[in-house]
Amino acid sequence: MHAKMDKHMEPKFYGIATVGERGQVVIPAEARREHNIKPADKLVVFGHGEQGGIMITKADSFNEFLNKSIGALSRFEEKIRGVREVQAEDGEQGL
Fold this sequence. Notes:
The chain is an alpha+beta fold.
C-alpha cells in the first residue's frame, strides 16, 4: 500500500522554458508565484553530471535546509558517540 504524498511534496510541471542567447531562462509565472520568487532573489543552480539535468532552488530555502541538516547530523553524531561510550564501558566491564 502506497502512502499518499502531501500536496506540497508532489512534483509539478510548470511548462517549458527556452534558454536565450545570453543564457537567460524565464521561470514560468505560476512557478514564481507558488514559490514566492521575486526579482533580485538569489537562486542556487545544481547540475547532475552528464545527464544534463539541473535543479534550481531559492538560496534562502537552501540555506535553511542546510542549517537544519547540519543540526540533525550533529544530534545524530552525539547519539552515536553516546552509544559508543556505553559499548566501551560494557567492554571494560566484561559484559
